[in-house]
Predict the structure.
Amino acid sequence: MIGTPNRRVHARKVLRSTATVTLPGAPPREMRTWDLGLDGMSLVAPRPISPGTRCTVALTLPGDAVERSLTAKSVYSSLMGPEGFKVGMVFTALDPAAEAAIRAFVVA
């Protein structure tokens, strides 16, 4: 909606890659990433993830040789069309190394 303020605390950068998402009580699933910032990220999932669902997102950033395991909480799921649902995530905690890697990616 035009005129709606951006509620994000930090800027996001496009990240078209893959991530492994582990939801409570479910096996890990591969999903596509959409964007990433210090406060969270968006993913494209085949099915919606209910807001408030906590999960772990494992991914490797471009230029970073380490797979990062990030704890997150879903805040929305919106139908994108045939490709699936865009799922917004906020990070619930970032260790210093993961924060530094994300910061380096976003400002690069």
User: Anything to note?
Assistant: The helical segments are 96-107. The chain has one domain: 12-107. The longest strand covers residues 67-81. Residues 1-6 have pLDDT under 50 and may be disordered.
